């Protein structure tokens, strides 16, 4: 069989500067899949992650989209709204295409084995919309050497415990000037609201229908913002002054990492993907680092923490051979051994229970307990719309409104309730405009008018 007879399955992935191995490793998986299925060629292409959604939309309008497309989690509603050349949705739900099969081209279907928090995030209208190979959450990393020196014997689990630990660190002779830091990024807001059972968007966080309203001044949002502002005002929270927005996003996360690694704070909130790096910073700096769940508001019931990461979407209208090849490759990517290896090399959670079990049997989590925390945190969610997370159009624009408002609170002393109320109006205008374009009630062609990623 020569290459011209092969069924070509085109895969477009995000080319992330900070996650370069995913693209490289997926190309290797494509090669191995081709060896097992010589009638197929999986053609993997990396695209600038900031441009990929727009390029996919353009290819769709030309009637030439790839079979599989990677989308960042905040682009979920955007992915649902991208249109094919026929004017219908470009993507078809992965669960619908699998159609109850247990095997595709000899590859076992693993949809039911996905980690529930990831599966639930991408389950929309009762169907799994996409396959999530990269999933993370937000954790607290603690310099327990500093905490013990300050008399703090347990890593804080609640906001109140964070404040108590911060006061102890402030009293430590020769200790850091600040106790805790985290980036002013939309993901942190989402997590804090979700933990408290709050919703960012109407229609059940966009889970019961298209989100038509957004609320950045809910009780849950204000509780978090006011606690955050108080920590900052009392000198416990370190704000680097850089919003995690636009081209400053990476810089903001890096500055928070550097503050913790340099022992300028005792605590930091960051992604679970950074677990190895955080622990390594302690090893190199001569202090012990412990990963722990993201502290929550202990005054209200805990609903759960949501995911971050990426998913793979299946284009509709493919011929049967191409669709089956694409679906089989998606299953192959999250085969237990492959998903376990991706976790080891990237820090993203093992995405299936079978891959987590494999790592457990190998003793991985006993040797690396900091990698178990994210799985346990996500497993503690209650599956509510709050814990599953919001689906919003122009999510990145709305996140930027959040971070701009909080910057004004932290840097300029704005009152949280008033500033977030104004932010809600700004975010609502963005959402209304986005929805109007997608629903065809705004001038111009129907479909998304903004393709920002972040």
Characterization of this structure:
- The chain has 454 residues and is an alpha/beta fold.
- Helix content is 46%, strand content 15%.
- Strand 7 and strand 8 (127-128) form a beta hairpin.
- The relative contact order is 0.18.
- Helix 1 packs antiparallel against helix 14 and helix 8 (186-195) crosses helix 10.
- It is built from 20 helices and 15 strands.
- It folds into 2 domains: 7-135 and 307-361, Periplasmic binding protein-like II (D-Maltodextrin-Binding Protein, domain 2, 3-Layer(aba) Sandwich); 138-305 and 387-439, D-Maltodextrin-Binding Protein, domain 2 (3-Layer(aba) Sandwich), CATH 3.40.190.
- Strands 1, 2, 3, 4, 9 and 15 form a 6-stranded mixed sheet that branches. A 5-stranded mixed sheet has the order 12-11-13-10-14.
Please give the domain count. Answer: 2
Annotation, overall tally of beta strands: 15
CATH class type of the largest domain: Alpha Beta
CATH level 3 topology of the largest domain: D-Maltodextrin-Binding Protein, domain 2
Q: If classified by CATH, what would the architecture of the largest domain be?
A: 3-Layer(aba) Sandwich
Classify the secondary structure makeup into a structural class: alpha/beta
Can you give the mean pLDDT?
A: 97
CATH superfamily of the largest domain: Periplasmic binding protein-like II
| Biggest sheet statistics | 6 strands, mixed
Low-confidence spans: none
Proportion of helical residues: 40-55%
Terminal residue distance: 43 Å
Number of helices: 20
Shape: globular
Radius of gyration: 22 Å
Work out the strand percent: 5-15%
């Amino acid at each position: 069989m020569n290459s011209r007879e092969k069924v070509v399955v085109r895969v477009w992935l995000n080319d992330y500067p900070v996650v370069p191995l995913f693209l490289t490793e997926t190309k290797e998986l494509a090669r191995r899949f081709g060896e097992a299925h010589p009638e197929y060629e999986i053609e993997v292409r990396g695209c600038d992650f900031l441009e990929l959604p727009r390029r996919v939309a353009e290819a769709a309008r030309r009637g030439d989209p790839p079979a599989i497309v990677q989308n960042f989690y905040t682009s979920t509603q955007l992915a649902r709204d991208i249109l094919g050349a026929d004017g219908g949705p470009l993507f078809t739900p992965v669960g619908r295409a699998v159609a109850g099969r247990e095997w595709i081209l000899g590859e076992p279907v693993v949809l039911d084995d996905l980690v529930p928090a990831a599966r639930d995030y991408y389950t929309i209208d009762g169907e799994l919309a996409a396959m999530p190979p990269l999933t993370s959450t937000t954790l607290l990393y603690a310099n327990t050497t500093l905490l013990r020196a300050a008399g703090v014997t347990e890593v804080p689990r609640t906001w109140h415990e964070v404040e108590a630990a911060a006061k102890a660190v402030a009293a430590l002779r020769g200790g850091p000037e600040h106790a805790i830091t985290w980036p002013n990024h939309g993901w942190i807001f989402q997590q804090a609201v979700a933990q408290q059972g709050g919703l960012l968007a109407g229609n059940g966080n966009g889970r019961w229908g298209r989100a038509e309203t957004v609320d950045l001044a809910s009780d849950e949002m204000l509780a978090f913002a006011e606690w955050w502002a108080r920590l900052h005002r009392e000198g416990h929270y370190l704000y680097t002054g850089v919003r995690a927005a636009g081209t400053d996003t990476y810089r903001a996360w890096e500055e928070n990492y550097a503050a913790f690694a340099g022992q300028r704070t005792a605590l930091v909130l960051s992604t679970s993907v950074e677990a190895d790096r955080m622990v390594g910073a302690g090893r190199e700096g001569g202090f012990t680092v412990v990963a722990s769940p993201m502290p929550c508001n202990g005054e209200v019931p805990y609903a759960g923490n949501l995911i971050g990461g990426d998913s793979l979407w299946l284009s509709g209208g493919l011929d049967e051979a191409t669709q089956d090849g694409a679906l089989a490759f998606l299953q192959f990517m999250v085969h237990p051994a492959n998903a376990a290896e991706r976790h080891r090399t990237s820090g993203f959670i093992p995405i299936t229970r079978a891959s987590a079990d494999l790592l457990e049997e190998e003793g991985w989590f006993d040797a690396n307990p900091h990698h178990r925390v994210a799985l346990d945190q996500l497993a503690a969610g209650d599956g509510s719309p709050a814990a599953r997370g919001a689906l919003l159009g122009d999510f990145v624009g709305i996140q930027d409104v959040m971070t701009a408002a909080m910057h004004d609170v932290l840097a300029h002393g704005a009152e949280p309730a008033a500033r977030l109320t104004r932010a809600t109006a700004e975010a609502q205008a963005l959402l209304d405009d986005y929805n109007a374009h997608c629903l065809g009630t705004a001038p111009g062609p129907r479909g998304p008018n903004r393709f920002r990623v972040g």
